[in-house]
Amino acid sequence: MSLLRLDDVYKSFGDHDVLRGIDLEVAQGEVVALIGASGSGKSTLLRTINLLEPIDDGRIVLGGVDISDPRVDVDAVRARIGVVFQQYNLFPHLTVQHNITLALRHVHRMKKSEADAAATALLQRVGLADKAAEHPDRLSGGQQQRVAIARAVATSPELLLLDEVTSALDPELVGEVLDLVRDLADDGMTIVMATHEMAFARDVADRVVFLDAGRILEQGPPAEVFGAPREERTREFLARFTA
Predict the structure, then answer these.
(1) Is domain 2-242 given the CATH code 3.30.870.10 in the classification?
(2) Which of 27, 130, 169, 179 sits a CA distance of 20 to 30 A from 1?
(3) E strands in 52-153
(4) How far apart are the first and last CA of the chain?
(5) 182-206: pLDDT as tens digits
(6) Residue 170 in this model has a pLDDT that exceeds 90
């Protein structure tokens, strides 16, 4: 069953067309990896899904609701979606525990005791139970990104958006974050992720979508897109990672 659908979505910034007629469906429990060169539209696509950028034309439907309708309650939509960006975006003045419980208490109106229990369980899961009382600047980049992911999934979102979550990390820290994303995928979470980690996309995604200049040029199972890409432009892009 389709959880997310984009119908002929367009987005421009001034005279620059960033998304040019995007049609995409994401099934419940599916993991979709967006790949493509910088400037291909991956991040903008994710930002339109979370209503951080209004679209110029087309429609975005989440769980049967047209969330691109200007009359939609934006906060209510965002409460259904978890987002993790390249930068961790943790609140520096709050402890790790408080970063995770903030939305639980103030958006989802959870009791403090329940929110704390949920945060403790999540920190245990991501291997950071001993960091609950620390502030973000006391953590490594990989640890901060794991906290950011824990915060995003704390509210049990219907959809998780990941925007190049390893791009700001030192190479030795990438694995710990990707392992966490892999665990979430194994648990059946619906994920749309922009990534430059081709091996990870091949191993974890159910479907790979190649964007080029704001269009979906090719998509399919990882074995097809990586093993026998149909489009010359896809072959050129992937050759950079296998040369």
Answers:
(1) no
(2) 179
(3) 57-62, 65-66, 81-84
(4) 38
(5) 999 999 999 999 999 898 999 999 9
(6) no
